[in-house]
Amino acid sequence: MELDWLEDFMALSSAGVFARAADARNISQSAFTRRIKNLENWAGTPLFDRSVHPVELTPAGKAFKPTAVETIKALTLTKEDIRDLSFREAEALDFVALHTLAISFFPSWLTGMVANTGPVKTRLFAENFSGCAEAILSGSADFMMCYHHPSVISISDEHRYPSTTIARDTMIAVSGVDRHGNPKFHFEQQEPLPYLSYPPDTFLGRISTVCMERGKFLGRLKSTYENSMSEALKSACLEGHGVAFLPAQAAEREIELGLLKKISQPSFELGIDIKLYRSIDRSRPQLERFWMLAQKS
Predict the structure, then answer these.
(1) Among candidates 128, 110, 127, 132, which has minimal Cα distance to 119?
(2) d(C-alpha 100, C-alpha 244), whole Å
(3) Domain check: are 52 and 125 in the same one?
(4) Is 232 in the same domain as 127?
(5) What's the number of domains the chain is made of?
(6) Rounded CA separation 207/220 (Å)
(7) In this predicted model, what pLDDT tens digit does every residue of 49-82 receive, in sequence order?
(8) Alpha-carbon gap, residue 161 to 121, rounded angstroms
(9) Between β-strands 163-176 and 260-262, what pairing exists: parallel, antiparallel or unpaired?
(10) Which structural domain range is residue 136 located in?
(11) CA dist., res. 53 & res. 59, Å (int)
(12) Cβ neighbours, 10 Å, residue 144
């Protein structure tokens, strides 16, 4: 059964004349008659008495009418609710970002963006790099926010997934402090340093390796703890468990408070970009406006 059949039923029960009801429904009389017959076939009994003019409802038609009214009302309200939900969903911009960026960068960056765009509803999902890439490639996110450096391969299809650099950061080495506020570990020490590391196949793991190679002390660090999230390594570093390489913005507050000390030199620190990617397969006015402003930020 179709909603049109029910609306045809109501039109004919009101007009009493097939031609007049068909005009009200803006369809031909033959098509209207065919749809009324389809409804009666579905019901298994005639709903209109055609032996009188204007036609009248049969006892079955009279019994069916309240159900038709309630069904039309319920389906109409449901349709409106679904459309409203779809509209509200379309209003939100979906972001996926590396855990570190989701915590240390995204909120302040969004504040700056909203100052130009006005209020905007966003949804943010934090993932590792492979999860971020999967989200943007599968079309489940509007934007992806990740670190980038030429030495680490990321998304290669810049035509379908264009990107813009929205900020720059630096990979630095940090240490927790002793009770005098001095770093517990430094690279001048002769003994191997406990190293709080990323998994080697992650973006920040590879960048950290480049930093260590540039500083020529790759063999002097002994991994004692491994975690893919910078925030987890920072927490371990604050507890004095070893040396960690962190994006400077992620450690900025703790360094200002004297809880962490930067122990790296500019010669082996590495600049990294913060990039925003989008998929050209997902497009709507609000997304395009946000993307245009992001490229200017």
Answers:
(1) 110
(2) 14
(3) no
(4) yes
(5) 2
(6) 17
(7) 998 889 999 999 999 999 999 998 888 887 766 7
(8) 22
(9) antiparallel
(10) 94-276
(11) 17
(12) 29
